[in-house]
What does this fold into?
Amino acid sequence: MVTTATFSIVTARKLAASVVDPEIPVLTIEDLGILRSVEITQDGIVVTITPTYSGCPAIRQIEDDIVKAFMSAGIESVEVQTVHYPAWSTSWISDDGHKKLEEFGIAPPGPEQDVTCPRCDAASPKLIARFGSTACKALMVCSSCGEPFDYLKQF
It folds into this structure.
């Protein structure tokens, strides 16, 4: 078993940061901006996260995945704290996260009037539904290529 005394904060942060979002598997929780902090205490590792919104159905899975990541690295004492203040904002998504979203076919957050198709980059897509595959996404269709796509709504 690895102890927290031999585990560096840099290693702990990298490990937590590598956990992927179960709803958008091309993004890590760090890309998404929900990883707030990682601390090493006398009692173990404390990871603090903020959900994308208070009713996010994926938050329990993310908490479990963080614990599993540390347990697979030999750290058994892991506490995940979920905080709702300050509220998560799409401005917390990293630049790399924006690129990954687009490459995955999801329009990254921004003003709705500025959304472009992630496939052909055409402007002025049509909003089909306020809610897409998850509550934080809207469903749009491209005005040029006709392809449907998710748009991660700006919060």
Q: What stands out?
A: The radius of gyration is 18 Å. Residues 4-90 form a domain with the GMP Synthetase; Chain A, domain 3 fold (CATH 3.30.300.130). The mean pLDDT is 93. DSSP finds four helices and seven strands in the chain.
